[in-house]
Amino acid sequence: MSRLSNNQEPTIPPPENVFPANLDVAELLASGWRPSAFRQFILKVHSRCDLACPGCYVYEMADQSWRTQPRQMSPAVVASTAFRIAEHARTHRLPDIDVILHGGEPLLAGPESLEHIVRTIRGACSEVGTRVRVSMQTNAVRLDETYLKLFHDLEIRVGVSLDGDAVAHDRTRVFANGRGSHERVSRALRLLEGPFHHLFAGLLCTIDLRNDPIATYRALLEFDPPSVDFLLPHGNWAAPPPWRDADSTATPYADWLIRIFDEWRETPRFRTEIRLFHEIIRLLSGGDSRSESVGLSPASMVVVETNGAIEQSDILKSAFEGASATGLHVLTAAFDDALGHPAIAARQLGVRALGPECRRCDLVNTCGGGLYAHRFRPATGFLGPSVYCPDLYRLISYIRERHARDTARLEGRV
Fold this sequence. Notes:
Elements: H1 25-30, E1 40-44, H2 75-91, E2 96-102, H3 111-126, E3 131-138, H4 145-154, E4 156-161, H5 166-169, H6 182-193, E5 200-206, H7 213-221, E6 227-231, H8 252-266, E7 273-274, H9 275-284, E8 301-304, E9 309-311, E10 325-329, H10 335-339, H11 342-346, H12 356-359, H13 364-367, H14 389-410
Parallel strand pairs: 1-2, 1-8, 2-3, 3-4, 4-5, 5-6, 6-7
Antiparallel strand pairs: 8-9, 9-10
């Protein structure tokens, strides 16, 4: 499928003397630091997509390596990936792991291929006593009863991308001919409301400031999602996201999210978990983060590309060509080799991977510098704060104050 650029200028990779390329992992190990095992394996089972969303970080941003990827994982790559996952689980004595089927659009791989991948990985991991939880993130335009019956048999949970009502969703989630996909996605989601509801993992919604936040939130609730994840559009200091002036202290994304937070908080009965809000409250209460968007918990995910390359989070493709690469491959390297890569080690260092501006911030333990990919600046690499820094500070501060006030009222202190 041919695609047009979204006009983002190619970003030159930072020099080797900036973070994290200049991180000395051998010195870290000598000081007593030890990496955390991977527990989440994201498999790019198909490298193409049946939508042509103009802001997609895989196809329309800085890294265009998808063009040279095979369309689908080969049996040899599947077998080697399964072996490497089981090897890692055995080495680190992991009782359970998560495997996420991803793309592109994973449903393009077809039911037989998906079943083969899942059974191969579970078979390999059963030999070392590790339970494999499997989920999928899909645009759902191909999701039907045939797939759902298979996912029921294989216990695969399904996350769906939906950006609101028809007008909101069809602004950007479009086919190559410009036609919106909301009708097809809605039809699939109706199937998840019935006997397949136990497979429904939740909705992923990319924020578009042109869409009314309350209308967007209520449109998502119509499908009874167990969780909703609101995502900030990907961008960085070299290529700022829409309506985010890198030099401005305005907080348009925080203001958008705060309106939803107030409605979510004030609803008398629980409707759904909103992951970003839940994680911020969890961190403010002293817990660990389970999301890469906020907090300082070590990142525990790794990506296997369609060709078998071992990579970092694919969101890094929004920064520059090759930003997610490690130079490793499942045919020749173990996942433990990736744990020694400077860029992966950097995402497990917590506050030590942040620059002075973030370390001085009173919200550093909650914010954690924001999503790693959003920190990129050519001159300093990934050491600085997120391009969304003003929004994150405003949002977390608001939630902190509101949560403290609500907690005091419940405890009878006010």
